[in-house]
Amino acid sequence: MTKGLVRGFRATSVSQNPASDIAPKRTLSAKGRLVLQTGASTTIAAPASWGGHFWGRTLCSEDSTGKFSCVTGDCGSDKLKCSGNGAAPPATLAEFTLDGAGGLNFFDVSLVDGYNVPMLVVPQGGSGEKCTATGCMEDLNDACPSELKVMGMDGREGVVVGKSTCEAFNSPQYCCSGAYGTPDTCKPSAYSAIFKSVTPSTPTYI
Description:
Blueprint: E1 4-6, E2 11-15, E3 22-26, E4 41-45, E5 51-62, E6 68-72, E7 93-97, E8 105-110, E9 119-121, E10 134-136, E11 149-151, E12 159-162, H1 165-169, H2 172-175, H3 190-198
């Protein structure tokens, strides 16, 4: 897994560039709630030694009873705020560990849990050989094999997300479990190679 290293990282700016609005979820505070309109951005201060994920929820709506849900990245809380819940896969994850080994900060964008939105992490003011932008700004839905594609509920949205092979097939080979639960036996698959060819800096399998 390729990760970036950066010193002095304490704030994250989240920007929304795709054509549809998203509801990002950050686990810095279970009380937080955030909706980004197209082209908007926000800055979130992170405490020392924080670790967690950011992800985007898309195609969100609220029904007549007030239940909030999203077609992709939903956290199952039935509300805009996730109250500490994680994302239901498939979801693109931006992962951060602050003040990790050697006092360094680690970050990556992962497709291990599948793909729902393009995402890029760009360090500001850091130093180090691997302190470079990482992520996937390609729309992978077109490249997604048919067996991993998830269509919108009414079909009009087309392909909305790409499943991970673990979620799609639920087998030890693709979930890196059982006999495949070690680095020596958990190998990239033909599916992960497809995504790796499009976005080489992004982890695509466990």
